[in-house]
Amino acid sequence: MIGHSLLFNEKTGEPMIVARGEFTLNVDRKAKNLRITISPLPPVNETFFFIWEGTSRLLVYEAGKEQQRIAAILGDGLTVPLAGEEEIAAAISAIAPFVIVHSDVAAEDGTLTTVDADSRVHVLLRPHGGGIVFELLIRPLGEDGPGFYPGRGSATVIAAIKQQRVQTTRHLKREKTLLQELLAAGRDWFSVEGSVSISDTDVLSLQQLLELSSAHKGRFMPLADGEFVALTEEFRRKLVELRRMVERHGKESRFHPLAAALVDEALHGTSLKGDKLWKSTLERFKSSTELEPKLPATFQATLRDYQLEGFAWLARLAHWGVIRGGIRRWRTKRPTVPIESANCGRLPSIGWWQLIP
């Protein structure tokens, strides 16, 4: 069943994937020692076992004689003084054919092929319930190699890629920088402010109105000195809707561009005035809702319904301008093809977008 394209979780009914799990030997430098572990630790005398990743991905592990022998030696972990670093480096070379190596100690093996690390961030989209979840990974040995969280873990990675043992050294600082750039894309927030005159001398700011509507559910909002202000039911409803979409940031209320259309709807009928950026954001949103993204003719894979929805969603976000940068590639389980020809705007160049069946 590993790699089968039509598998579903019996409990949730959502699509899922069964993939082959890979054992990893971790060598971490801690103070004056080296800590060596194998993950996952295979159960004693069990050849096959599985581990769930969420509810849509099942990893199946096969613990052969070599992996069982390594696990028997290491157990829950082995601590070695730094003085034994050369011996550990030699041991890593001997173990490398049977596990992925993630180490603070480089292997001493002239037969290993050394390659430059790929520091781009991979964005994996995976179905979860009625929506889609994101996972951000680095694949330093390329798309066929193991994945790691950006900027975390050891620098040296050794794995078998297409039956060839390959070693690379990750650029951890570069990974963190690219991750920050990716997360920063689309983080431009709008601030919203305003005021309401309740008498010739008294004025309530929008922030005060939002706080009052949060603390009091009715139309009547208590003021200082025992006074009250009465809101129309329509205006109270608009405040409630707006409060759900904005967040307090310092002294101002702000909202993400993704909520622009909802904020515009909530404030319809008020004397809201937006700047050029606000107006252009709404115009791009309206045009993006009418966009019908198409996969290029060169795409050689069949996407499931949720994958097509994810593709269309990202394409519309790119057209809207919420995610920016140069387009790269769209990757399903195996086929990876450029989609520069798709009418979907531009996707970030600092990473790969990957759909997980």
Work out the helicity level.
25-40%
Mean pLDDT: 77
Count of helix runs: 8
Helix/strand/pairing category:
alpha+beta
Biggest sheet statistics:
7 strands, mixed
Q: Describe the global form.
A: elongated
- Terminal CA distance reads 13 Å
Number of domains: 3
Largest sheet, order of strands side by side? 7-4-3-8-12-13-9
Number of strands: 23
Query: Any idea what the radius of gyration is?
Result: 27 Å
- Which range does the strand content fall in? 25-35%
Unreliable parts = 325-357
Tags for this entry?
single chain, 357 residues, alpha+beta, 3 domains, seven-stranded mixed beta sheet, five-stranded mixed beta sheet, 8 helices, 23 strands, 29% strand
Summarize the structure.
By secondary structure, the protein is an alpha+beta fold. It contains eight helices and 23 strands.
Descriptive overview:
The protein has 357 residues and is of the alpha+beta class. It folds into three domains: 7-117 and 152-172, no CATH class; 190-286, no CATH class; 305-355, no CATH class. The chain is built from eight helices and 23 strands. It has helices spanning 65-74, 85-95, 172-184, 206-215, 233-245, 260-266, 276-289, 305-320; strands at residues 7-8, 15-20, 24-30, 33-39, 48-53, 57-62, 78-81, 100-103, 113-114, 121-128, 131-138, 156-161, 164-169, 190-192, 195-197, 203-205, 220-222, 228-230, 247-249, 252-255, 329-331, 336-338, 351-355. The strands form six sheets. Strands 7-4-3-8-12-13-9 form a seven-stranded mixed sheet. A five-stranded mixed sheet has the order 11-10-23-21-22. A hairpin with a 6-residue loop joins β1 (7-8) and β2 (15-20). α4 crosses α5 and α7 (276-289) packs antiparallel against α8. The longest helix is centred in the C-terminal third of the chain and has 16 residues, at 305-320. The two termini are 13 Å apart. Residues 325-357 have low confidence and may be disordered.
